Amino acid sequence: MSLFPPGKSPSIALRANRASLFCTLAGLFCVLAFAGISDDPALAQQAPSRPIVSAARVVLSGDTTRLAFSISAPVEARAFVLADPARVIVDLPETMFAIEPPGAGGNSRGLIKSYRFGLLAAEKSRIVIDLSGPARIVRAVSEPGPDGATRLLIDLAPTDVVSFAAAASRTLVSSQPEASGKASASGKAITPGGGAPRANRPLIVIDPGHGGVDSGAHLPGRPPEKEVVFEFALALARQLESGGRYSTLLTRNEDVFVSLGERVRIARTAGAQLFLSIHADTLSETSVSGATVYTVSDRASDVHAARLAEKENLADKTAGVDMAEEASGISDILFDLTRRETRAYSHVFARTLVSIWKDAAGLNKNPQRSAGFKVLQAPDVPSVLLELGYLSSEKDAALLTTPQWREKTASAVARSVDQFFAMRGPGQGGAEGAASVSGQGGG
User: Fold this and answer.
1) % of the chain exceeding 90 in pLDDT
2) Which of 46, 79, 147, 440 shows a CA-CA span of 20 to 30 A to 2?
């Protein structure tokens, strides 16, 4: 049974090979369309309904910095600034970006330090521009260029710190879109088969990290983290569902942005009994390799875990979604006990996963760690973050993109889930029954 509609989940290798071809085809399509060939009804039926961005460049003119995109059709752009760090956000209707590398581009030039783009939510795409200094938006419009082709132009000019801060504060609340991605926009549970979670089966929520405008870790010549972890999540969901013992739900079922808080809410609302967040990091030390399993804790187990949590917790800002911290509003003894018991179960699963994973693939020299990851904050759902390996390691990167490695390691995770629920006994959801292990560490 296909997990998604045709074309929704091609392999990483296929995506990499098709990306450059698609850029060429996108440009060719635009030429054909303008030439009037699209008047043919057969061709019109094949025409994509979304605008296509096929190229981007940064142009300097005096004190103005321009980010120019070649786009197949005019779009309405809505732009605003955000602070801490300084960014320009440009929201568009759902748009296809056929640009290499996918998801990001640009070296520091003028007022633009870097930029990224992708799907933000249902029918909405976003461009995020990291600024090298305070800037004001001169204009953000689409218009015909000298050659007649449509361009999306974002012109920026320098401004002072006070004026930038004032502009950012005016737009912070009013301009934030819905943070949830398509994974939850419909209000329906997302399972590999497209149906609802099955009764009397533990529900496992699998969270492919990053997505959409947030590519995650990315190195030249290698697929971005968001693609690597999505392919693994699909493999894991297949393995868990195939045995008939579990239901699975993905926090995103395509390349779309989902906020950290929304990922947690998806798991809690669905009544998940285990939450697995999948990632693949990069480091400056290219010799570091192997998988690591993280749990949540108020104090990080080590400096590396603290740095990783800090980086992962910036995912919302990476996508230009600055959400206010949410207070639970609960501080009673029952809540604290539930959270302690849940963290205890999270530690138990982490140890189980490390023990079984080592027979299937490589582990980091310090494979079990903890820190204050926002995505692991559900007080009533045992949660772990699995770093599959490091894209900065040639060894890991070569393995992470192969179907054979994915199937082998996904099988190891599935066996870990089996052992975890065998230990807990049937019908144990949330933090129920955790008293038997509550003394085994709560972070």
Assistant:
1) 65
2) 46
DSSP 257-326: ---HHHHHHHHHHHT-SEEEEEEEE--S-TT--SEEEEEE-SS-SSHHHHHHHHHHTTHHHHTT--PPPP
Q: What is the dihedral of CA 382, 439, 418, 377, to 10 degrees?
A: 10
Q: Answer yes or no: are the C-beta atoms of 111 and 131 closer than 8 Å.
A: yes
HSE of 261 in the Cβ direction (CA atoms, 13 Å)? Answer: 13
pLDDT in tens, 289-310: 999 999 999 999 999 999 999 9
Q: Are 181 and 256 in contact (CB under 8 A)?
A: yes
- 293 forms beta bridges with 368, 386
Q: Which domains does the chain have, with CATH numbers?
A: 50-171 (2.60.40.3500), 182-436 (3.40.630.40)
Q: Are 75 and 141 in contact (CB under 8 A)?
A: no
Beta strands 383-390 and 291-296 are antiparallel
Give me the helix-helix angle, 12-34 and 225-242, nearest 10°. Answer: 120
* Structure-block tokens of residue 102: 């996918």
76 Cα distance to chain centroid: 25
Residue whose token pair is 């770093």: 387
The answer to whether 283 and 390 have CB atoms below 8 angstroms apart is yes
- Better-scored residue on pLDDT, 218 or 78: 78
